[in-house]
Amino acid sequence: MSKPIQHLQIHKLEDMNMYRDLGPDFDPKQPRMPNFTIHVAPKDSTIYDDQGNPTKNKSQWGHTYLTVQGLNPATSKYEKISIGLSSGEDWGSIKDNLSFNDHIRYQDASTLTITSNSAQFFQDLTNLFNIINNYKLSKTSPTNYNPFSLTGEKTCGKFIQKIIQDAGIKGVNIPFWPNSAYKNLQNLADDYKTPLVIDLNGNGVQTLADSFGVSFDFDGKGTQSQTGWVHPDDGLLVWDKNKDGLINHGEELFGDNSVLNNHTKAKDGFSALAELDSNSDNAIDKIDSLWSELKVWQDKNSDGISQVHELNTLDNLGIQSIELKKKETNYFDDNGNFHKLMTKVNWSNGTQTDMTDVLFHQQNVPTSTVSLQQTLNQMIDTIAGFTKPNHGTMALTPQLYTENLSTASLASHYLGCA
Predict the structure, then answer these.
(1) What's the pTM?
(2) Label partner for 217 (CA 20 to 30 A): which of 59, 253, 289, 410?
(3) How far apart are CA 185 and CA 150, in angstroms?
(4) Cα separation of 205 and 124, whole Å?
């Protein structure tokens, strides 16, 4: 039995996400405002031929691919292009692993469309176009496709995640496997916060859903967000920087709110922890100067507030070292938290457990207070504010857009989603 088709949209404002369910009958091929869209065809989806006719063939593993719609800097035209990674006809080479017609061959795919009016978003779209254009021109070679890859490195999901990361886009998390992407479609571009979590009892890193009710101040601005959280059997790696005996905010965790030596934010928990590797041996152990200051916070009552008895040194717990060599895992657990990177913790009794850079899902803020008219006004103001190209750099302009799709049409497609 085929899975229901979903068409979802997230419009990203500066401090919130606006969510829309476009309905199963929505046509993702229609012209729309600038966007990029993640398409997910789960296992056993119908495969169409190159003319768009359904075949008797079903997708054995499912498929994840990407479309980008906007001003293509290579052509100066408003257009949509797609890209995906599959086996092609020759499993033994990469010569036909790239596919640029997945929008025809996987017409029943579910979609998550991301839109925004920010200048950064339009730069992100330009970056995506440039990356895909380079693949089309064979300036960039893809990896070989292998759905049996135990690490997920050669899957279609990994390929799309890499394109998004190479474009500099943050906050979009694609699982390796299409069925997982389908199951978590509505959460692929949600807000997440990333600390390092240590498996303390040998059964893997466990988490709690954001609906459990835990809140924490990740940003250090005095505002707590309701969040996914660590299971009480496991612990957060922490550093009490101000030595007040408490873990006050996200900068005392190891994650994307950690401040690096160059005064920028870390991209993940491992890049923050790596700065404490004082002897550069790719591990954190007693030889490193700040070893004694590191602790594990086991939030046994799951209240998001550290108590003295919940904080233990690594030595007291029997941790011998933490490896810094990491691998991508890229999967959602059953509580909606994304396990992105993993390494090993070595214990004094000779055992190993996992330490994972977990992206805790942040509970979505209701958007009902934002009217569609407010959104329309902001869209029009943003489009009207574009400047013409300068110094050979392509920028979005009102002229270029109205040549292909009027501002009113862009707005009506977003607000009406016909």
Answers:
(1) 0.84
(2) 289
(3) 23
(4) 33
Q: For residue 385, how many other CB atoms are within 10 A of its CB? A: 11
Cβ-based neighbours of 256, under 8 Å, separated by 6 or more: 193, 194, 250, 265, 266, 267, 268, 269
Contact 200, 165 (CB under 8 A): no
Give mean pLDDT, residues 249-254. 97
Residue 208 CB partners (closer than 8 Å, separation 6+): 214, 228, 229, 230, 231, 302, 335
Cα end-to-end span (Å), the chain: 28
CA distances from 325 to 104, 159, 200 (A): 40, 21, 19
Q: Which helix (H) or strand (E) segment is 8 a member of?
A: strand 7-12
Q: Give Cα separations from 22 to 42, 71, 113, 186, 411 (angstroms).
A: 19, 24, 10, 12, 15
Provide the H-helix boundaries in 298-397: 314-317, 372-384
Contact between 100 and 46 (Cβ < 8 Å): no
The CA distance from 173 to 187, in Å, is 9
Query: Angle at Cα 227 formed by Cα 24 and Cα 276, nearest 5°?
Result: 120
Phi, psi of 51 (to 5 degrees): -95, 0
The full DSSP string for 18-75 is: EEEE--TT--TTS--SSEEEEEEE-TTPEEE-TTS-EEEEE-SS-EEEEEEEEEETTT
Cα distance between residue 178 and residue 160, in whole Å = 11
Which residues have C-beta within 8 Å of that of residue 259, sequence separation ≥ 6? 251, 265, 266
Mark residue 235 as left, alpha or beta (left: phi above 0; alpha: psi -120 to 50; beta: remaining). beta
Nearest CA to 382 among 114, 8, 12? 12
Q: For residue range 77-135, list pLDDT tens digits in order.
A: 999 999 999 865 544 444 558 999 999 999 999 999 999 999 999 999 999 999 999 99
Residues 218-232 pLDDT 10s: 999 899 999 999 999
Query: Residue 207 — left, alpha, or beta (φ > 0 → left; ψ -120 to 50 → alpha)?
Result: beta
Would you tell me the crossing angle of helices 372-384 and 407-416 to the nearest 10 degrees? Answer: 150
Parallel, antiparallel or unpaired: strands 235-239 and 294-297: antiparallel
